[in-house]
Design a protein that fits this description.
Blueprint (H helix, E strand, L loop, with lengths): L5 H7 L5 H22 L7 H9 L5 H14 L7 H6 L5
Length: 92
C-alpha cells in the first residue's frame, strides 16, 4: 500500500466489522489486479482504491445491532444481551 491515510479510512469505516474491513481490502486488491491485467504493470493499492471500496461497502454490524437491540429490549430474560444494551447505552 502506498500513501494511505489510515486515520481517514478508520473514520470513514466507523462501525465496520473485521469481515467488512477484509472485504474492503479484497475489493481494492481486485481493482488493482484488474488494472494490472489491463496495463501489464502491478501498482500498489492507494488511498483512492481503499476510499472507493469503503464508500461502496455497507457496514454489516448495523443490521446485527438493530436485531440484537430488539432481542435485548424484549427477549432478554436470561440477561444474554445485557452487553448489547450496555454498548448501545440503553437502560432498561
Amino acid at each position: 500500500m502506498k500513501d494511505v491515510d489510515f486515520g481517514a479510512l478508520a473514520k470513514a469505516s466507523q462501525g465496520f466489522s473485521g469481515a467488512d474491513l477484509k472485504c474492503v481490502i479484497d475489493v481494492a486488491v481486485e481493482e488493482k489486479l484488474m488494472e494490472a491485467l489491463e496495463t501489464g504493470t502491478a501498482q500498489p493499492i492507494t488511498q483512492k482504491e481503499l476510499a472507493k471500496a469503503v464508500k461502496n461497502h455497507k457496514a454489516t454490524t448495523r443490521e446485527w445491532f438493530n436485531a440484537a437491540r430488539n432481542y435485548a429490549l424484549y427477549s432478554n430474560e436470561a440477561g444474554l444481551y445485557d452487553d448489547v444494551l450496555k454498548y448501545l447505552n440503553i437502560k432498561k
